[in-house]
């Protein structure tokens, strides 16, 4: 049986007639031609299909389109406005946080949701927010750096926290790490698999 | 498309029960994070999904003086951010936080985790030690099921096809009560449990309440463990009882040998937490 | 080059990042072509079986189904180095997960439903699952017709009536005598399980068959020209009839080199009357149907004198190729010629066997056999150091290749090779080697340090080549056309930097055309082997020089001076001795028009190319020869912490030193290194296929195949890039793309011995293996 649904996608009102078993991911990609959101596994494990549903990051492969009736959906295509990249997007570019780019839309949406609920996230919070987004290319350091810098930029703060440490021919290319600041941020990163969350 | 099912959004518990009672395989759809995966993988082919997320009663999350009521449609992220849960039910929050990813926890529910009835269900051990009860609606009316009666086998519960869990209730513990949850995973990233354990104890109690998951066809609540003697004696008692009550298997996730090796480690740490009231790492 | 470089060596951001952060980047997954059909597969439930009967009648009858194919109707042979594969299983299935029936239908749901209606009857056969058993006499043969397969003669040597797809040998010096006279000897065995690349975008292809015998192909691939070539050979059609286009690619790691879903999509399209057909692997199919990295059983024997000088090394590598070895044979070859590590080994005996089994088959994977081989070699080196009571770093230092020595294939080591010792020292220093780890509060936690060397050269045919074309736009900007693929490494950005540098253009005026298209983009062999920046860079340099020559020619006529008096800078050609006399490229790009209307020149198009030089085949008996265009050396050093209660291991710090020759773009290079280290961590600590006793794949999904998440990264990583120039490399650069993952497992294995006193020889080093070894209860350390 078909269902008529009304939802907002990236601020735009949409109406669709969908079978019950169509997922939100299929609706976005195939009906609305918003192919920015990707399918990586289909079972909610990889985060490539992360979108915001009423402001909350969810894996669209495990949301039925009908469940999104009356909801507000935001995808990566809505991150830039008036053709201008957001601070978050620019931070990803500057940090080299997109390599093959397939995980990037999901990462951006997870990061967007994080910054909305926690404008000054610690490194631990950043890691927790993107832990459900698998990346095979970057090793995550540049992504964490991008989100950290975006937060700082949005909060008007400069920082001297560095990203990965690089020396070329014996010369350090990055600013030296401030060990203390780094450890402090590590302290609230979930350490143990037991009891503190997976 | 995931399958050939139809969908209805129930507006009341009665409506949900009625729809579930009709012939043709109907299933409750709450978070969907287990159910939709099973449908996709061909393990289930329901004819109808009954969405209960818009039933107000199922979205309650509140404490009366006596108990915490967690509506069946409350997402895990909402549960873990509730002040009272963090204050009085930290182990429950720990267990919930260990389930899946942040995205998953915006959909998955405690009731769903229980009804899926995996032997490794992370919410089960804590709820077993806290004497949680499930409120269940059916066409015949409401009833209460103690969690100790819920699990009947691997991914099997005592619930009937027309039953709708409306909430999970946990008696508010005294301020002195300590609860703890520990889980062994294969990786720091999101993972199912290789072994998970929970415990509950208040100083002065005659016994510790200990539950073990992932080591038997269902999560297991041990018989009350005598709290007399030294901490070491108590811990060994817990370990002995747990080993007698469980039978870890080898599966794709871990070998029985690893489970048997880790179970006592977790239990000893659990007992320390419960008896000392402090945390380890 | 004495002048300061403007762009090369700078941390320039990728242009393509904009498409990626906005969702505008379109991958094959995202493409749709009018009239497109969708495909689904029926795969084998058995590891080895005869196909008795296929009843697809109900599937064919389903409304919306446009084509149903079985192997019986597809008598084509596929393969890169060895043609041992079919498009669909024909008569027999050789691995659980092998495609048996393919359906193309109007919708994916219809195709899947049709697949559910197919009935296949099998006669099960006994599978052979362990390559060591497959070597034994009397083993079931995975390919009884091995002697009939086409293969690259003179390079690969399949052994008919066995399961040996290839046997590569290295025989240098006199091993038997040397080992007999060694003061100290050591033998150890090691194992790597098969793993998967896990690109975030699974394999996907869209093919439209056109009349007559033509096709348009869009594919998530690392090698458009190889796709075209192999399809041409397979189907017997001219290359020009096949047009291959590669859009954005969501990761490859070697798994998207060669031919995968394209032939299947083609034959489905033909069967569907020329409707385009899209085939997309599900994640489960990505694990269970599409290829993997071969498993490896190694035996390593080393002989050294009391002073710590290695005299002899013998290695036997038994590769678990799985059911098909069309690419795996080259891994076996490369492993042999690299198979003693970056050391001076005067007496060396290596046998590398690529062996068929009834499991998912292997293909190229980042590192191309070197991670697997160096797991064993670097662990054995550490073991030998201990036996000699020598510091592992000092033992390596005493034996690393240096000027005046030769490799095990007889290649002389030169200053241009870079500095393995420099990498060793840099990595060791970075983790304060020699200084014990800081004490840990918790008594149940122990720490340790470990180090491992790495090396790799591109494993490629002796005729590997690359071409580039640069054309100028009307506004004097430049477009660079190449058909190497940027699937995340950032090579297009590097080529852009090189082109801008060489063309003397502002970098924003240079574009590398993203999609490659065999109709327009000039040839490139494959984007594998860490050779695209090297070969593409050289081709772009030559193409840019060609452009400048044309620019100067026209400018000299226009300005009335000799060509060698014209210099180019900042997009302008001017007279060296009178700079005010100048013409911007924009006025030369399509030719120059004098005031009176006469026009000279024409559209400026520069051409460049590069072909591997001086490579030779390896002697089939001794393995001697020159297989390597260049070697890149490196080292990983790691500090770990183990929770002895649970076996949990954490990486406190991992330092990677690589001799890059020249760091063309530090931001991208760091990205490659950090990413590669984390991928290496996956191989080291968590990844491995699990099969049941019948050869069925048990963990084809993220639920039970774990790759590192953001929570699993090391507490600290360091990257140290040395710049000892590579002769012949663009600006002295060498490839570094694969190297960051190669010896991560080796370094960790060595650190675990430091921490626990336990010799681990089997990967992955997961918590279970570590804990059970600590308890003395493990099956395989």
What characterizes the major β-sheet of chain A?
A: 5 strands, mixed
Q: What is the general shape of chain C?
A: globular
Largest beta-sheet characterization of chain C: 8 strands, mixed
Mean pLDDT of chain C: 97
Strand percentage of chain A lies at 15-25%
Q: End-to-end span of chain A in angstroms?
A: 39 Å
Q: Spell the H/E element sequence of chain A.
A: EEHEEEHHHHEEH
Question: Count of DSSP E strands of chain C?
Answer: 29
The domain count of chain A comes to 2
Greatest interface:
A-C, 64 and 69 residues
CATH topology of the largest domain in chain A: DNA polymerase, domain 1
Level-1 CATH class name of the largest domain in chain A: Mainly Alpha
Mean pLDDT of chain A, nearest integer? Answer: 86
What oligomeric assembly is this protein in?
heterotrimer
- Using the 3D structure, state the CATH architecture of the largest domain in chain A: Orthogonal Bundle
Q: Regarding CATH, which class of the largest domain in chain C?
A: Alpha Beta
CATH superfamily of the largest domain in chain C: Aldehyde oxidase/xanthine dehydrogenase, molybdopterin binding domain
Q: Structural class of the helices, strands and pairings of chain A?
A: alpha+beta
